[in-house]
Design goal:
Blueprint: H1 25-34, H2 41-53, E1 57-60, H3 67-78, E2 82-86, H4 93-96, E3 98-100, H5 102-114, H6 121-128, E4 134-136, H7 138-143, E5 152-156, H8 163-175, E6 177-180, E7 184-187, E8 193-198, H9 206-210, E9 213-216, H10 222-232, H11 238-251, H12 262-274, H13 282-288, H14 296-301, H15 305-320
Parallel strand pairs: 1-8, 1-9, 2-5, 5-8
Antiparallel strand pairs: 3-4, 6-7
Helix pairs in contact: 1-2, 10-11, 10-12, 11-15
Length: about 325
Amino acid sequence: MAQGNPDEMATHGGEAGRPALPGSIDAVSDLLADGGYVADRGLATVVFLALKLGRPLFLEGEAGVGKTEIAKTLASALQRRLIRLQCYEGLDAASAVYEWNFAAQMIAIRTAEASAAGTDRAALQAELFGDDFLIRRPLLEAMEPDPSGAPVLLIDELDRTDEPFEAFLLEALSDFQVTIPELGTVKAPEPPIVIVTSNRTREVHDALKRRCLYHWVDYPDFDREMEILTARAPDLPARLSQEVVAFVQALRTEDLFKHPGIAETIDWANCLLALDVIDLSPEVIADTLGAVLKYQDDITRLQGSEAKRILDQARSSLGSGDADPAG
């Protein structure tokens, strides 16, 4: 990381020897780059503002463009715990916040019944709904004190849930607190760093978006995707890296059911490394296309002459100066 003005890194949150929050947009870019994440200026700016203002960050975009990776990189770079709430259809507050260990409660009841006849029912009830029988789920975990500092809470693929859960989440993110009827309200002593992601399979309600800072994470251009690939697959020969990126960029202009994301570019590069490929060819593409495309109709469409056509198009863009072959 670049060593600039110490005030740029020494902002609030650096006590107890843990890394401080970055104090400038450039410091955020450096922090993410040190973790292997190449962010453009717009993304670095909104991450800086989310950290500075303590606001949740809502990242929307196609699958595989690096939304989830932002949270992982921040948690690693800031040495904070990463708490992930993976969303799915039917997710409710009980699954996201807490539940009681019913099996352990039943064992405790049976044990109490089998012991002395004079069991104190009030004391037993207090014990049954105490901390020992509480199973903490991600939202509750994120609200509790952590010696390493406020955790990074990743609420991943929110668009997979339904509106009732959105309404609940709206309240939880407003005050950074959750209520457990048997125990009371748990309020975060220090608000977690919240990253919410959506693949936009449906529209998320405006009320929730208004609680957050918003950023659309788009597919990268050639130069930035080259930076990303160089950081994530440094052993790939430079010319092959250029061909891989140019080919994937060309694929994104095709009429496919699902365009490849950055994750697929990296996966494909690692497959080519494992196969000791030094140069793309239609045959290599046909053999490894499953690393780039995830739907059979798309793969079938690129068999034979189509793969060669797109490869020729990619090489033409490298040779024409649209993408610098020298890097």
